[in-house]
Design brief:
By secondary structure, this protein is an alpha/beta fold. The protein has 2 domains: 3-42 and 310-346, Urease, subunit C, domain 1, CATH 2.30.40.10; 45-304, Metal-dependent hydrolases (TIM Barrel), CATH 3.20.20. 32% of the residues lie in helices and 21% in strands. Strand 2 and strand 3 form a beta hairpin. The mean pLDDT is 96.
Length: 349
């Protein structure tokens, strides 16, 4: 059965009438196509920073947990995820199962010795980091480096990050970098990586350089904001100052990044999964346009990850809402239909 959707398609709000020709949209009418839904159409939501498959830091990848996490993403309208770090090599169905989101991943995290969660990722010497990152990117398209970790930890030197970025790019791959320190974010931007994850303590003066180089920012804002009450109750000290100050600065950083022309991506980071609407609301809460907050979790993120939107020839993903979500983010909780690979996956046909 060929599915059909029609309505006002974002980002432009133009009326479209689309048919799913397998896994591609077409405007060529198909007789007897089933009208799945009509209303306001988004090109499928994206969670660009999520780590499904392990319940707690250090746990091994569990296929059952992975499937449950991905189903929660689909329930929220997410049709594409990026996992910049996984607890293990994913099973062959990851990103391919017709009922679960499309997926790209960076394999295991790559960290310096003595940093990151025990049991997760690979600790790599600086001399080996470029070749290890390049080998991972050659396998999966992305690599992920933990540029810094705790408040007293040293960041990966800029020359090492630059060598890693160059090596990854030479394979045709891309490099994501976790950073929560000023030195780490400065090194990441100077190295020309592809995305800065979190970006806590990133100097706003670097934003024009990020925009010029096409470096995306994934602030995982809602996750940090959820920690604020507990952070404020902690005993005073350097660790509290670092984490609380950096978290409170993230919202203004997001607003400045959008104004500077940096591509901002929506990512939820950790358990529970399926909370992309929370991240969209958090981004909108920084004062940026709701249009731009939705872009970070839909058409802009899809473009960054190599997928089209609601046009002929693009992958047949969409989320349909009764009203314009730009004027009512409450619509995100009640999609009329989620279309993935040309099939209605939510609600079930």
């Amino acid at each position: 059965m060929v599915l059909r959707i029609r309505g006002y398609a974002l980002p432009h709000g133009e009326f479209v009438d689309l048919y799913a020709d397998g896994d591609r949209w077409t405007t060529d009418p198909v007789p007897n196509a089933e009208l799945a839904a009509e209303g306001w159409l988004l090109p499928g939501l994206v969670d660009a920073h999520t780590h499904p498959g392990a319940t707690s830091p250090g746990d091994p990848l569990d296929d059952g947990v992975l499937r449950e996490d991905l189903l929660r993403h689909v329930d929220a309208g997410v049709t594409l995820i990026r996992s910049p770090g996984l607890a293990g090599d994913p099973p062959p169905w990851f990103g391919e199962d017709p009922d679960l989101p499309r997926a790209v991943h960076a394999g295991p995290w790559l960290a310096q010795h003595g940093q990151f969660f025990d049991g997760w990722g690979n600790r790599v010497d600086h001399a080996e980091l470029p070749s290890v990152a390049a080998a991972q990117a050659a396998r999966s398209g992305w690599a992920k480096i933990i540029a810094d970790w705790g408040p007293e930890d040293a960041a990966v030197p800029v020359d090492v990050l630059k060598a890693a970025a160059d090596a990854v790019h030479a394979t045709g791959g891309r490099l994501a970098v976790h950073t929560q320190h000023s030195a780490g974010s400065t090194a990441a931007v100077a190295a020309g990586v592809d995305s800065v994850e979190h970006g806590m303590w990133l100097d706003s003066g670097l934003l024009p350089d990020m925009a010029r180089q096409g470096i995306a920012l994934t602030p995982t804002l809602s996750g940090f904001q959820g920690m604020l009450p507990g952070l404020r109750d902690r005993p005073d000290g350097p660790a509290k100052d670092w984490l609380l100050g950096g978290t409170e600065a993230l919202g203004p950083l997001v607003a400045a990044a959008v104004e500077a022309g940096v591509r901002v991506l929506a990512g939820t980071d950790s358990h529970p999964h399926g909370l992309i609407a929370d991240e969209i609301r958090a981004l909108a809460g920084t004062g940026i346009r709701t249009h731009d907050a939705l872009a970070a979790a839909s058409w802009s993120a899809r473009e960054f990850l190599g997928l089209g939107g609601l046009e002929p020839g693009a992958p047949a993903d969409a989320v349909v809402y009764a009203e314009d979500p730009r004027t009512d983010l409450g619509q995100l909780a009640a999609p009329l239909a989620v279309i993935l690979r040309g099939r209605r996956v939510r609600p079930h046909a």
